[in-house]
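FAQ

Q: What does a record look like?
A: Structure on top, sequence underneath. For example:
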């Protein structure tokens, strides 16, 4: 179980995060406060650091819900 913006999130929820630019992804795995996110597009995430990656692990505290 993890919290984003004070709300409990679960696998399948969408959250925003910033890595190079503000973007978002679907939660595929929760490990404590770490969320594994899947890119919403076939081309993967955007940006210099994670550009093209299909998955990215991020701390729930650095995410938000739109």
């Amino acid at each position: 179980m993890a919290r984003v913006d004070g709300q409990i999130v679960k696998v399948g929820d969408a959250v925003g995060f910033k890595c190079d630019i503000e973007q978002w992804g679907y939660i595929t795995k929760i490990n404590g406060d770490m969320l594994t996110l899947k890119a919403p597009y076939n081309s993967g995430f955007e940006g210099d650091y994670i550009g093209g990656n299909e998955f990215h692990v991020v701390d729930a505290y650095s995410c938000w819900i739109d």
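Q: Is there anything notable about this one?
A: The two ends are 19 Å apart (CA to CA).
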